[in-house]
Design a protein that fits this description.
By secondary structure, the protein is an alpha+beta fold. The protein has eight helices and 32 strands. The chain is about 20% helix and about 35% strand. The strands form eight sheets. Strands 2, 4, 5, 7, 10 and 13 form a six-stranded antiparallel beta sheet that branches. Strands 3-6-12-8-9-11 form a six-stranded antiparallel beta sheet, with no helix packed on it. Strands 15, 16, 17, 20, 21 and 24 form a six-stranded parallel beta sheet that branches.
């Protein structure tokens, strides 16, 4: 059987929205003369083309405008598009300015897309209504007839970008990942139990040489956290800034920590990396890729990380817990993520009860407010670990089960009120499954005509026998988490052709 693309799709995406501009026709596009435009068939996100914008004058502003549009947005839209940047270092740090107008820019909306947080490669960007500045009383109820984007090439360089898929109301689910950098004892002492009381998991960034030292967590504590479902991830062996090292030195710092995590049995979470000081460059990325086992890596940036991940080694952060973070900053970060969808990456170091002396500390009251606010909004944003996010976004491999009686076991998660599909790969087959889970499960079957035919209502914990269910290429099983919390599910399957 095949655990296919819609497992990942169903796990995080709720609505693809409406694409208003495909960037596949050059009619009505003009430039200010400092760049050229052309259609590109080899690099796109939707349709069959994108629009390539090539700077032709070094260090100059590039302005690209389309007139005679008919862009109709909702009254409170989330507006976004895909942008591919060939080399981010060739774009000036001033970033991008985007304009929408219904009357040749007599009145218009404008929004700024910062250079920081963007990367070489594809970037999915989104803006909610309050991100835009309104000039001369423009209105979203108007039909936008003019679209403009401008950016400046870096000094002595010419930037190249590709635009695709201007959309309205592309909705993805909201997630939050909380990371406790360095495994400080204070983060555990003041926040762990409180987060646990709200069923919120944390991620601990392990500096392997510091574990067991004064003020840092002990190995036994890490084992306890891992057993409870928290992720213990790689923060290198000694927290050296990786951008100051050679490729071989980078590999050593990461591998030494990986060896430590593996020895403690942390196989679920050892393949996730937090860059020390949030610092990375092309040398670091190449070294990490060469290791061959890193799934995700976090940097700084203070942006909502949009899904899917075009480059899982450059996940942006949204909120840092430090001496300047207050309750308003916490709520703003969470609200922004809920509105746009994607991942709110939060990271902190030490927690104290009062008077943070420097930027490495966060007030206990603020950290607990983060937990409370996530709990209050748990129907709109789900707090997960690195390994859980990876599973939500990953495509499940085709199994090698072929003989009657052969089995294959899996363990996975299904978000609250969400589901996963099980589809066959042969013209006909039976699926036999045993499920063990703590939560409410409903099982549906598509009969090729009706999408959801309920066949089992399983609310008891323990091993549940789903018996035989006939499937063909035109139908499938759907296992739904009918509970309000994330469900860890284990299952084994038998294929009968």
């Amino acid at each position: 059987m095949y655990w296919g693309d819609d497992v990942a799709y169903d796990s995080w995406l709720s609505d693809k929205g409406v694409i208003l501009e495909e960037f596949e026709v050059l009619n009505n596009w003009t430039t200010n003369g400092n760049c050229s435009i052309a259609l590109e068939t080899g690099l796109f996100k939707t349709g069959v083309k994108s629009m390539k914008i090539t700077g032709t004058v070094t260090g100059a502003a590039n302005v690209i405008t389309k007139t005679a549009c008919e862009l109709r947005f909702s009254t409170t839209p989330v507006v976004g598009f895909w942008i591919y940047i060939t080399d981010i270092t060739k774009i000036a740090t001033g970033g991008f300015n985007i304009y929408l107008s219904s009357n040749n820019f007599t009145s218009y909306f404008t929004v700024f897309l910062s250079w920081y947080g963007l990367k070489s490669g594809w970037n999915l960007v989104k803006f909610k209504t309050t991100d835009w500045t309104n000039h001369n009383t423009e209105a979203w109820t108007n039909v936008m007839t003019d679209f403009r984007i401008n950016f400046t090439s870096a000094t002595g360089e010419v930037g190249i970008i590709y635009m695709d898929s201007l959309f309205c109301d592309y909705k993805s689910k909201a997630y939050c990942i909380i990371t406790a950098d360095d495994c400080w004892q204070s983060f555990y002492d003041y926040l762990y139990a409180y987060a646990k009381s709200k069923s919120i998991k944390l991620n601990f960034g392990c500096i392997s040489s510091r574990i067991g030292q004064t003020f840092y967590l002990a190995q036994e504590t890490l084992k306890k956290l891992y057993a409870e479902g928290h992720d213990i991830v790689n923060h290198t062996s000694d927290h050296t800034n990786l951008t100051t090292l050679t490729a071989g030195e980078i590999a050593t710092k990461i591998n030494d920590c990986d060896t430590f995590l593996t020895a403690l049995g942390f196989t679920r979470s050892r393949n996730y990396l937090l860059y020390p000081y949030n610092a990375y460059n092309d040398t670091v990325l190449a070294a990490v890729l060469a290791l061959g086992y890193i799934n995700m890596a976090r940097n700084g940036g203070l942006f909502v990380q949009q899904l899917p991940l075009d480059n899982a080694l450059t996940i942006s952060s949204k909120l840092v817990l430090n001496d300047t973070t207050d309750n308003t900053a916490v709520e703003t970060a969470i609200d922004d993520t809920i509105a746009k969808g994607g991942v709110c990456m939060v990271y902190g170091h030490q927690i104290i009860t009062s008077g943070p002396p420097d930027s490495n500390y966060c007030l206990e009251s603020v950290a607990k407010h983060l937990i409370d606010y996530l709990d209050t909004n748990k129907t709109s944003i789900q707090t997960i670990t690195f390994s859980e996010l990876w599973k939500l976004l990953s495509v499940y491999p085709e199994t090698t089960i072929s003989a009657v009686g052969s089995t294959k076991a899996y363990q996975d998660i299904i978000p609250a009120s969400d589901y996963m599909h099980i589809k066959p790969v042969s013209p006909q087959e039976h699926i036999y499954m045993d499920i063990w889970a703590n939560g409410k499960i409903k099982v549906y079957r598509s009969d090729g005509i009706n999408e959801d035919v309920e066949i089992d209502d399983l609310s008891a914990a323990g091993i549940i026998d789903l018996k035989k269910h006939f499937c063909t290429n035109s139908n499938f099983l759907k296992i739904k988490n009918d509970d309000t919390k994330t469900l860890t599910i284990g299952y084994s399957g038998m294929r009968l052709v």
